[in-house]
C-alpha cells in the first residue's frame, strides 16, 4: 500500500473515532475549516467522504445550513480546478437544501447562486442560468440589495449576449446603468459589456464612443475592444498593439482561471485569422488547448476521455478545423467539437437550451458536408455520400429523436422509477413554462411569474439529475447511429424512394435514396433557385395569388421542380420527402412536372399526379414508423364558433365524415380544452377542426378550443397522448418559428413530440370549404383502404376530379395545404407484412404438426 493511501485511511479512521464527542453541526464546520486551511486534493477527497456521511444524518436547520456551507466550499474548489460538472452538482445540492428548508443567515447569493449562474453560462445551460440569475435578483429586490441587483442584471446580460440576443442584453445594461447606487466599478463593467453588445449588432460607432468615454480606457477589456475595433478599420498593426497591451494588463491582475487564459489565446488567434496568418493562429489555438488540458502530453489530437463540457473547446476545435487543409484532420477536429457538444447537451433539459446548442452543431455539420462534397467531387468515392448522409441525420431533429428514445425506454421498462419520475418532471416543466408564457403575454401578476420561475429552476435541476441517472442505466439501450442498410431495407419494403434535404447557410444538400443507391446533389442558396423558392411559398399567402397569374405560378413551380432535381425521380413510385429549412413550408404535391400553358387545373401536371407523397421529419423516424393494425377509435373536436366572426361554416359537414366510424364528437360549446385534455389519450385517431395560429417571435403557436387557447407547451405536457393519427384540420398547424435542425415549432411538431405516430396537418390558412371537402374525401377513402397514406393521396385526386368544384377552387391553394407525415401503410405494403407473418405462422404450425405426427406414429390416440 502506498503511504499516501495509508495516510488517507488513517485520517478517515481518526475522523470516525472522534465524531461521537462532537455535535453534528460542529463536526461539519470543523470539516469545512480543516479543508479551507489546507485545500489540497487529498483533503478534498476526505471532505467528499465526510459530506456523504453528513448528508445522511442532518436533521435540524442548523445542521442543514452547515451542510449548505460545506457544499458551497466544495463547489468553489471544484470550480477553480476545472471540475465544472462536479461544481454545478455541489452548488445545486447547496441551493436545494437551502431553498427547500427555507434557511437563512447565510449569503446564499454570493457563495452559491452567483457562481452557479456563471457555471451554467460557461457550460451552455443558458435556460438554467437565466432562471437562477432571475432568482437571486428577486431575492436581492426583497432585501433591497441594490449592488446585487445591478450585478444580477450585468450577469443576465452576459447570458443573453452568449446566445446572440444583443438587444435584450443592451436593454438590461441600460436599465442597470440608471440605478442611482451603481458603483464606479459596476458602471465600468456596464460600459464594457455595452460596447461588446454594440459590436455584436455591428454598431461600431456606439461601441467606440463608449470606450472613449471611459476615464480609464487602458484596462484589459477596454484595450481588447479597441483591438477589435481597429480590425474593423483594417488596421492590423494597431489591433496587435492594443491586444499586446491587453495581455499585459490581464496577467498583471493575477485573478484569472485556466479558462480565462485559454479564451485570451483564442481571442488573440482570431486577430491573426483576420490577417490570414494561419501558423500564428494555429500556435495560439494549441496553446489555448494545452492551458485547458495541462496533463495532455501528446502534441496531436487530445484524447476524448480528457475532454469535459466547456464551450471554449468548441471554439478551439472549430477554428483548428477551419484552418486545416487535410480533409481527414479537419473532420477529426469537428468530431472532437461534436463530442464536447454532446457532453454539454447531457446537462441540458430545456428544449430552448438544446436548440441553441443544436444551432452551432448544424453550422459544424454544414462544414463537414462541404468537406465531404469537395472530396467526393475529386474521388467519386461513394463512401463519402454515406458519411455525409449520416452527419446530416445526426444533427436533424435531435430533440424529437431523444424524446422518442425516452418513450421507447419507458415502454420497455414500465416499472423503472427513474423513467417514471422523468416523465412526471417533463410534464411539470412544460406545464410551468406554459403558465409562465401566459403570464408574460398578459403582463399580469409579476410575483406569480417569479414564483413559477423558482419552481421551474427547482424542477429543471431535479430533471437534470434524473437524466444523468437514466443515461448511466440505459447507455447501451439508447438509440445508436442510423444504419444505411436498414434504410435501404425499409425503402424496399415501402416500394419507395426517399428525398432527404439538409439546409445550410450557403447550400442545400439533397440525398435521393432508392434501390440500394444514394445520389447526392448540392443546390446553392443563391440566384434563381432562392428567388423561385420564396416566390413559390408566397403564392400560397392568399387564395387569389395563384388564380391571378396561373402561368407565372406554373412556370415558377416547374423551375423549382427542376432545380430540386425532382426530374431525376422515378415516376409512379411512393416518394418520402424529408424537408429542411424553408422547404418545410413547401407543398411538394403542387410542384409542376412539365412546362405547361394550361389554365385548367385538372390538366396541369402536378407532382401529386405522378407520385404518391408522404413526409417525415428525419430518416430515423422513417425507419421506425412501420404500419400497424388500425384501432379506429376516433374522437373529434368541432368548436364551429357559430354566430361569430370566427365561424367555421363547413365544419359540421366535416364532422359528418366521422359518423360512419362511430366517432365520439364534441361539437360547439362541448369542444372545450378540458374535454380535449380528458379524451386525448383514450383514442387512436384525434381529429381537430378548429382555428390555429403559427405564433410569432415572442409567442408560441396555438390551437383554439371553444373556451380557451392551447399553447404549444401545454401540448408538450401531454405525456400520455400516443395516437396512431392526428388530423389537424386547422390553419397553419404546420407553421411556427423555424429552428435550424429542429424544423418549425408548430402544433404538428408538438404532437410528434408527445408521441403521435402519424400526422396530417396544414401549411397555411386553409379554406373552410376545401378543408371540409378534403376531409370528407379522406375518411370515405380511409373506410375502404384502411390506409392513412392512400387516403391522403386519393382525397386530393378526388378533389381535383370533382366536376362540381369550379376551376378557381381547384387551385393548389385549396387542395395542397395538407401534408401527411407518417408511414407508407398502403394496402399492398400493409398486406405484405401480414402475409409474411401468416406464412411464418403456417410454417411453425407445420413444424409442430410434423413433430407431433412423429411422436405418435404407430400409437393409438
From TrEMBL:
Domain CHAT: start-end pairs: 570-822
Membrane spanning stretches: 832-850
Domain of life: Bacteria
UniProt-recorded name of the protein: CHAT domain-containing protein
Keywords from the named record: Membrane, Transmembrane, Transmembrane helix
The UniProt record lists the keyword Transport: no
Amino acid at each position: 500500500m502506498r503511504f499516501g493511501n495509508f495516510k488517507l485511511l488513517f485520517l478517515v479512521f481518526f475522523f470516525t473515532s472522534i465524531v461521537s464527542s462532537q455535535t453534528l453541526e460542529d463536526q461539519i464546520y470543523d470539516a469545512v475549516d480543516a479543508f479551507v486551511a489546507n485545500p489540497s486534493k487529498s483533503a478534498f477527497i476526505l471532505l467528499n467522504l465526510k459530506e456523504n456521511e453528513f448528508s445522511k444524518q442532518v436533521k435540524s436547520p442548523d445542521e442543514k445550513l452547515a451542510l449548505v456551507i460545506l457544499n458551497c466550499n466544495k463547489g468553489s474548489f471544484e470550480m477553480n480546478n476545472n471540475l465544472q460538472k462536479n461544481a454545478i452538482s455541489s452548488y445545486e445540492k447547496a441551493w436545494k437544501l437551502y431553498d427547500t428548508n427555507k434557511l437563512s443567515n447565510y449569503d446564499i447569493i454570493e457563495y452559491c447562486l452567483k457562481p452557479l449562474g456563471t457555471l451554467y453560462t460557461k457550460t451552455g445551460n443558458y435556460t438554467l442560468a437565466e432562471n437562477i440569475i432571475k432568482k437571486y435578483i428577486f431575492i436581492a429586490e426583497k432585501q433591497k440589495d441594490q449592488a446585487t441587483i445591478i450585478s444580477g442584471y450585468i450577469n443576465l446580460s452576459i447570458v443573453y449576449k452568449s446566445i446572440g440576443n444583443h438587444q435584450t442584453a443592451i436593454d438590461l445594461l441600460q436599465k442597470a446603468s440608471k440605478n442611482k447606487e451603481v458603483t464606479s466599478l459596476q458602471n465600468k463593467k456596464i460600459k464594457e459589456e455595452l460596447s461588446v453588445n454594440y459590436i455584436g449588432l455591428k454598431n461600431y460607432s456606439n461601441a467606440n464612443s463608449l470606450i472613449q468615454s471611459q476615464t480609464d480606457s487602458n484596462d484589459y477589456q477596454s484595450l481588447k475592444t479597441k483591438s477589435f475595433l481597429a480590425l474593423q478599420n483594417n488596421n492590423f498593426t494597431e489591433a496587435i498593439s492594443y491586444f499586446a497591451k491587453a495581455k499585459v494588463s490581464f496577467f498583471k491582475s493575477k485573478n484569472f482561471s485556466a479558462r480565462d487564459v485559454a479564451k485570451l489565446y483564442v481571442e488573440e488567434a482570431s486577430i491573426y485569422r483576420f490577417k490570414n496568418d494561419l501558423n500564428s493562429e494555429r500556435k495560439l489555438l494549441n496553446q489555448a488547448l494545452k492551458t485547458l488540458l495541462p496533463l495532455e502530453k501528446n502534441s496531436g489530437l487530445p484524447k476524448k476521455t480528457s475532454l469535459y463540457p466547456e464551450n471554449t473547446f468548441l471554439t478551439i476545435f472549430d477554428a483548428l478545423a477551419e484552418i486545416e487543409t487535410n480533409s481527414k484532420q479537419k473532420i477529426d477536429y469537428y468530431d472532437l467539437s461534436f463530442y464536447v457538444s454532446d457532453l454539454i447537451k447531457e446537462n441540458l433539459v430545456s428544449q430552448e437550451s438544446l436548440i441553441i446548442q443544436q444551432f452551432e452543431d448544424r453550422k459544424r455539420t454544414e462544414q463537414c458536408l462541404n468537406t465531404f462534397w469537395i472530396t467526393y467531387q475529386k474521388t467519386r468515392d461513394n463512401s463519402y455520400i454515406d458519411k455525409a448522409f449520416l452527419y446530416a441525420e445526426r444533427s436533424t431533429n435531435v430533440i424529437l429523436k431523444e424524446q422518442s428514445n425516452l418513450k421507447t425506454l419507458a415502454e420497455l421498462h414500465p416499472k423503472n422509477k427513474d423513467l417514471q419520475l422523468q416523465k412526471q418532471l417533463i410534464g411539470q416543466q412544460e406545464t410551468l413554462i406554459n403558465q409562465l408564457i401566459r403570464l408574460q403575454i398578459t403582463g399580469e401578476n409579476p410575483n406569480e411569474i417569479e414564483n413559477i420561475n423558482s419552481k421551474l429552476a427547482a424542477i429543471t435541476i431535479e430533471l437534470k439529475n434524473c437524466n444523468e441517472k437514466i443515461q448511466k442505466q440505459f447507455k447501451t439501450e439508447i438509440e445508436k447511429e442510423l444504419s444505411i442498410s436498414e434504410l435501404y431495407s425499409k425503402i424496399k419494403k415501402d416500394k419507395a424512394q426517399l428525398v432527404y434535404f439538409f439546409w445550410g447557410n450557403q447550400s442545400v444538400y439533397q440525398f435521393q435514396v432508392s434501390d440500394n443507391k444514394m445520389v447526392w446533389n448540392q443546390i446553392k442558396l443563391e440566384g434563381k433557385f432562392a428567388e423561385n423558392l420564396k416566390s413559390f411559398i408566397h403564392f400560397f399567402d392568399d387564395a387569389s395569388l395563384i388564380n391571378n397569374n396561373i402561368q407565372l405560378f406554373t412556370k415558377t413551380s416547374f423551375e423549382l421542380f427542376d432545380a430540386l432535381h425532382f426530374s431525376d425521380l422515378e415516376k409512379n413510385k411512393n416518394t418520402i420527402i424529408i424537408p429542411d429549412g424553408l422547404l418545410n413550408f413547401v407543398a411538394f404535391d403542387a410542384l409542376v412536372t412539365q412546362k405547361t400553358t394550361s389554365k385548367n387545373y385538372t390538366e396541369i401536371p402536378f407532382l401529386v399526379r405522378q407520385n404518391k407523397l408522404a413526409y417525415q421529419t428525419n430518416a430515423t423516424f422513417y425507419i421506425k414508423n412501420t404500419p400497424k393494425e388500425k384501432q379506429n377509435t376516433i374522437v373529434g373536436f368541432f368548436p364551429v364558433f357559430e354566430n361569430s366572426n370566427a365561424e367555421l361554416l363547413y365544419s359540421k359537414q366535416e364532422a359528418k365524415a366521422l359518423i360512419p366510424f362511430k366517432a365520439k364528437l364534441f361539437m360547439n360549446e362541448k369542444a372545450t380544452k378540458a374535454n380535449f385534455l380528458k379524451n386525448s389519450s383514450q383514442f387512436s385517431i384525434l381529429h381537430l377542426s378548429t382555428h390555429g395560429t403559427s405564433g410569432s417571435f415572442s409567442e408560441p403557436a396555438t390551437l383554439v378550443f371553444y373556451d380557451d387557447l392551447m399553447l404549444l407547451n401545454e401540448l408538450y405536457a401531454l405525456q400520455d397522448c400516443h395516437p396512431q393519427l392526428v388530423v389537424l384540420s386547422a390553419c397553419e398547424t404546420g407553421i411556427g418559428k423555424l429552428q435550424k435542425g429542429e424544423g418549425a415549432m408548430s402544433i404538428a411538431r408538438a404532437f410528434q413530440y408527445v408521441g403521435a405516430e402519424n400526422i396530417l396537418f396544414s401549411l397555411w390558412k386553409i379554406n373552410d370549404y376545401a378543408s371540409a371537402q378534403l376531409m370528407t374525401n379522406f375518411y370515405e377513402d380511409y373506410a375502404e383502404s384502411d390506409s392513412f397514406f392512400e387516403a391522403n393521396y386519393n382525397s386530393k385526386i378526388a378533389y381535383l376530379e370533382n366536376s362540381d368544384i369550379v376551376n378557381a377552387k381547384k387551385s393548389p391553394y385549396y387542395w395542397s395545404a395538407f401534408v401527411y407525415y407518417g408511414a407508407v401503410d398502403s394496402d399492398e405494403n400493409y398486406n405484405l407484412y401480414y402475409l409474411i407473418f401468416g406464412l411464418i405462422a403456417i410454417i411453425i404450425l407445420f413444424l409442430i404438426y410434423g413433430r407431433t405426427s412423429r411422436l405418435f406414429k404407430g400409437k393409438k390416440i
